[in-house]
Amino acid sequence: MLLDTVFAPCIKERPICVMARGVLERLLDADRVDTLFERTATQQYTRELLFSTVVQLMSEVVLGVQPSVHAASQAHKEERGVSTTALDNKLDRVETAVAAALGRDSARLAAPGVQALRASHPRWVPGSTIKVLDGNHVASTEHRLQELRDTWAAPLPGQALVVLAQHRMVITDVFLNEDGHAQERRGIAQVLYRVSAGDLWIADRHFCPRGLMGGRARRGAAFLVRQHGQVQGELLGAPTRQGVTRRGTVYEQAMLVSDPVSGEALPVRRLTLARKEPTRDGDTALHLLSTIPAQEARARTLVGV
């Protein structure tokens, strides 16, 4: 067959490249993407320019095929069938809910492929479904007009909260906010809807408010977060030495943190890493708060995550 003749050398010499191409074509299938848009969009609609065309152009930029959206647009000038202005308007008005739905749907389709390839990673904490929460807040100097880069009054780009499933290294959720001045913690209510029993959520100190910690606990999930300076509690007993890592000495101490919703005291493990060398911010000790039981994960294991 003709296809056998064409693809056989590629499959033999570069099988990973062929599989990656197949996976991406599956995730970015035009009919599926357009159907998702019609199902999710509430304000935009399709006139001449399909949403799948926008996704194709953006994917070429993200994957490094084209240096910019404009370059990708020019390369597909005949195919897109609309003016550059129409394309810019479509991009400018893509609803955050549509972009988030595309991310979740792609993760759903990617999961069977990861499983079939046996490409899952060892769990950092055995027995836990680990989810890493992080924020991507574009700096004020990035992607802004030169004239606006030195003023705080100018609008900032938007931000995103991203959830990574550690076992499969797939981004499963993204929470988008068009207000670049908003704090990452404003998206916490959305995050809590994605918390399930048996999860272990790992996050930096920006995601350490008591409401988020208590919300996870009420849903049967554990957390491991760096303690924010504004989150205080009642320390119980004295810290006990738990061992030494390459970065420093580990201590553990019991702590009670009040849940602002229920008013109850939430018992947590306060893990401290006394660093051999200070961080770039000058910190000589890092404090982590966790609700995962000691019998499931030792302090040294959690500090090393």
Outline the structure in words.
This protein has helices at residues 2-13, 15-27, 30-40, 51-62, 69-75, 77-80, 84-92, 96-116, 188-192, 210-218, 299-303, and strands spanning 129-137, 159-165, 170-177, 199-203, 222-226, 234-245, 248-258, 265-275, 285-290. With 305 residues, it is of the alpha+beta class. It has 2 domains: 2-94, no CATH class; 120-303, no CATH class. A 9-stranded mixed β-sheet has the order 3-2-1-4-5-9-8-7-6. A hairpin with a 6-residue loop joins strand 7 (248-258) and strand 8 (265-275). Helix 1 (2-13) crosses helix 2, helix 3 packs across helix 4 and helix 3 crosses helix 8. The radius of gyration is 23 Å and the shape is elongated. The N and C termini lie far apart (51 Å). Mean pLDDT is 81; it is low at 140-145.
Give the helix/strand class.
alpha+beta
Task: List segments where confidence is low: pLDDT < 50 over at least 5 consecutive residues.
Answer: 140-145
- As a whole number of angstroms, the C-alpha radius of gyration is 23 Å
Strand order of the largest sheet: 3-2-1-4-5-9-8-7-6
The number of helical segments is: 11
| Total number of domains | 2
Distance between the termini: 51 Å
- Please provide the count of β strands: 9
Classify the beta-strand content into a percent band.
Answer: 15-25%
What is the chain-wise order of helices and strands? HHHHHHHHEEEHEHEEEEEH
Per-chain topology:
Layout: H1 2-13, H2 15-27, H3 30-40, H4 51-62, H5 69-75, H6 77-80, H7 84-92, H8 96-116, E1 129-137, E2 159-165, E3 170-177, H9 188-192, E4 199-203, H10 210-218, E5 222-226, E6 234-245, E7 248-258, E8 265-275, E9 285-290, H11 299-303
Helix pairs in contact: 1-2, 3-4, 3-8
